Amino acid sequence: MATSPVRFGLVGFGAWGQHHAQSIADDPGAELVAITAPSAASRAEAARLHPRARIFADHRAMLAGATLDLVDVVTPSHTHLEIARDALHAGCHLLLEKPMALRVEDCREIIALAAQRGRQLAVGHELRLSAQWGEIKRVIDRGVIGEPQYVLVELSRKPYRLGASGWRYDQKRVGSWVLEEPIHFFDLARWYLSGAGDPVELYAYGKSRDPQRPELYDHFSAMFRYGNGAYAVVSQTLAAFEHHQTVKVAGTKGAVWAGWSGAADRTLQPTFFLKVFADEKLEDVRFVQQSGEVFELRAQIARCVQMVRGEARPAADGRDGLWSAGLCLLAEESIRQGRPLPVGEMLA
């Protein structure tokens, strides 16, 4: 007996939302039933590219007018809480782009509502599904490099896109630039160091190039440590060129070093590598699959299909989303206060 496709409703049809739409449309286990887009131009483009999907101007109209299994939210950060509430109250499972919300309390509300409604909640930390970044976790889990003691996740890239109506450069709507890409790096570092428990202290620095927006940091670095002495460094600059990400993990028996480079973050032909050093031997890991967020998004949609069918858990669940957002917000507070802060003050 054939399994029915999982019915997706997509809220948001900007640059990244269009990638979500295509990934859903291309997945054999998914059906792109409906799309919500805010402007007449984006609705026309959605209808042109996805003629089988119903197009709506408002997510509430979509929830009322379409039969959906899962709602995929790819909208500006400040809208996530409202859309998540409405989707869960409508009985839908949820794929919520990072950050879950702009406040820890709001993240907790979404988690509690998903549990109350008996719905699955996945947060868009697709790097966990990467052939490259995921292989680092598998190397750690196999014990190849021993107990991880140090993690570095670093990005050097060109400035962020403005986003529709400039939302990414508006603090009220974006919340923070630390909640943009560094949130992925906090998630990766915490994932790699999961054997150490939860972080206990964080210290961060930030600097803006523009005196008109000192609250949005072009340069950002944070260090957070664990009770066993392990620690992680997350660092980013937006004052560079192209898109170059590095991850290093050192353990008691070895180390890994990985890098990814492309002309832009959604490059389809990047260069990337992963080196593993253990037992005095250096291995260059060979990959069959490409690495990059476009490819990882496809894996995320496939995981959501499995999630709705009860065949898999979310790659990153609500608690993961809460922790990544919470660490970013704590980093902002550390910058404001100019001192290290105990993690428990925010995330206990």
Describe the structure.
With 348 residues, the chain is of the alpha/beta class. Helix content is 34%, strand content 27%. It has two domains: 6-126 and 298-317, Rossmann fold (3-Layer(aba) Sandwich); 135-289 and 324-347, Dihydrodipicolinate Reductase, domain 2. The protein has eleven helices and 15 strands. A nine-stranded mixed β-sheet has the order 14-13-12-11-7-10-9-8-15. The chain has a six-stranded parallel β-sheet with strand order 3-2-1-4-5-6, with helices on both faces. Helix 1 packs across helix 9 (293-308) and helix 4 runs parallel beside helix 5 (104-117). The longest helix has 20 residues, at 318-337. It is globular. The model has no long low-confidence stretch (mean pLDDT 96).
